[in-house]
Amino acid sequence: MPYFAAVFARTAEGWVGTEPELAEAASVDDVADQMREAAVETYGESVVLLIEQDDDWFAVLRLDGEDDPRAFVSTVRGDGLGGLLHPLVGDAPDGAAGGDPGLLEDLGVSGAQLGDLGDRALPSDALPRIAELAGFGEEFDRLRD
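Structure tokens predicted for tRNA adenosine deaminase-associated protein:
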């Protein structure tokens, strides 16, 4: 299952990105722990995780301080990496979008924009746009190349 994932932590100097190792995650708690590790390493408060799998679907997760993570998934999947995120998307059926489309509104990505990207854009096009709008486009490009 080829995927790309990047965690971005906000610091006083700006956003810092790193690639997590999600293949070893067995639950959404493991994913949140990896996000918290990125925040500790960069002294960040807000942490955003972008995931793309097989250019089929994407997910955006956000973690603020000690809060539970929130997520938006363009296409809910019940298996593999998508299955790990299932507890965060509510009652959305497989194949539909799910979660909280407004999780990045304070970073400049409206719920409508996120939903529209989920509906109309390929994940490989959506994630760079989300990163650009949220203010960490350069870090995303650095990790993606």
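The radius of gyration is 14 Å.
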